[in-house]
């Protein structure tokens, strides 16, 4: 899979441009201090077919009749409530390290057409959040029960039917700042024509206008967006 992402300078522009890296899995060093924000993609540029699961303990469970029961996946995720990822509330000035990620179909596309979802979570819950998606998103094609035989995430990671990538790692940000960053990436891919399956808009203009002027909640420099950026698109 190849992903085309904007670098920091592009992101700071009010409008998205058509200039992209010509290399899949490109790593964009931040022009801000590394402690603030670091873009990274977890795969290498050499050969994604050779990828292995992140760790043996991070394999998802095969739900096929011949594999292990899906109850094992549910057991792994039941202690990670969907509410937990929403650290703290959007109006709370508490701060966490966070990630913006995508879920994509693992079909080898290099033009971004296989990107299906943009999301956010805390850095500590990066992988468990994908486990939740696979175990709970009954509406989604990556759902472990999506086929009669079940989707198999216990095999070599290069064979997973769907996978996730971290687009951006954010340091010491509020929930609102993370949500604005998620909105920026959602718009980035929608403008490229991606058929995202997100059913809700992370940050509508009304929410942005209500909170963006509160210094304890939002500083655009913390997430590398232009001071003139405002949400302009909705998920549906």
Detail the topology: elements first, then pairings.
Blueprint (H helix, E strand, L loop, with lengths): L7 H4 L25 E3 L30 H8 L17 E11 L9 E8 L3 H11 L25 E13 H17 L13 H7 L25
What distinguishing features does this structure have?
globular; about 240 residues; alpha+beta; 5 helices; 4 strands
- Rg calculated over all Cα atoms: 18 Å
Average predicted confidence as pLDDT = 73
Major sheet: arrangement of strands: 1-4-2-3
Strand content: 5-15%
Helix amount, in percent?
10-25%
Poorly predicted residue ranges? 1-59, 61-86
Counted beta strands: 4
Structural class: alpha+beta
The helix/strand series, from N terminus to C terminus, equals HEHEEHEHH
Report what the structure shows.
The chain is of the alpha+beta class. It is globular and about 50 Å long. The N terminus is likely disordered.
Give a nutshell description of this structure.
The protein has helices at 8-11, 70-77, 126-136, 175-191, 205-211; strands spanning 37-39, 95-105, 115-122, 162-174.
